[in-house]
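From the thread on structure requests for the teaching lab: each student submitted one protein with a one-line request. Submission from student K.M.:

"Model PLOD1-3-like GT domain-containing protein from Alexandrium catenella, tokens only."
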Amino acid sequence: MSFRRLAGERLAAWLLLVLWPCVRAGVEQPPSGEAPRLHLVTFMNRAHRLFAILQVSAEAHGLHPQVLGSGANCWWPEGLGAKINALRNFVFSRGVDGEDVVLFMDAFDSMVFGGEEDILAGLQEMEKLHKARIFFNAELVCYPPLDGLCEDYPPSPTPLRHLNSGLMIGRAWAWRELLKEPVPEVIEGGDQAWYQRQFRRANGAGLLELDRECRLLCAISDEVEDFAVLAEDGRMVRRDKGYRPPVVHWPGTGHWTRWPSGQLSATSHLIDTFRRIYPDAARRLVDNWNLELQLGAAQDVDLYDGAGIWPVMIAVLCVQCNVFGTGQRECRFFDGYFSERCAAISLLAMTGFVLSSLACFHDIQVRRGKMGPISLNLSRVLPKPSDFSV
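Reply posted by the TA:
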């Protein structure tokens, strides 16, 4: 080896030794050996009161959701390509290291039941079990029912068989591999259809997998409400296996409005769970009725803020469902004029109709001179002053 070549190699090694700290500082990488961080993110283009469920439950476990997509022009479901792109922008941001864990949760129908340590340990266990890197919660039904998405779906040891994109978790480097390029803002079937296609194409490739057993991510709905239940310590527990998922989602019927028999107010499985664990927060944030007008950016007019006047809502739904025949989902609880909730309203309406008809008939007869006006002789009813004498 020549002297000149040896000197050049020594100079290069010296420059690398001197400049390497500056290079690493510019990349913002954590010190070697630092544990991966958990980033909890959600998507919400407009504020909604049900976000309080995720916010309160996350804060109770030391987590603070980062909201993506505020003000985005999007809609459910086809317009949710923006939701995918917002997540993509986040995982490629400078504040996220490759080994960090990114957990995405739907903003309005999800709850946190465990802290960062619990979630990270759950992910490590899932990675070892399935040799995959990104995990989705699984649900009973396949949505959207588009060609090529639901046929010959991979089998499952539980009723939870199909991908749902309401809960997703994985390492940042894996997210970057999945989301290499931006997606169209408008996608047929929405963001879940896009994730379904990626899952079906990559099935068995070691990147995407479903949590079909509720070990880490769990989806609960009417059809499988007994699959996982709320334990006395406030954790969701899978009945048969004892798994305690730290993150739970109520898709579809899990968050749809329901009217339990014998109850005058509306609720949902999601709201019931939140109310049992956080009763004070539920009373202040989701149970009250609030009527207000938002007039531009500077004016709010509060019309009512207080306890729910549920008989009014019941009367409205009885009329909508039985008189006008609207097809809204809640009508299954108000089916028939003499159903559990509409019977009293119907009897009251019938009584009013009969009395008003009799009054009209009497008025017509009076005008024709066939009947005298109805009078009430109060002297026969009210007591005389002498009756009160001592």
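TA comment: The CA atoms of residues 3 and 9 lie 10 Å apart. The mean pLDDT is 87.
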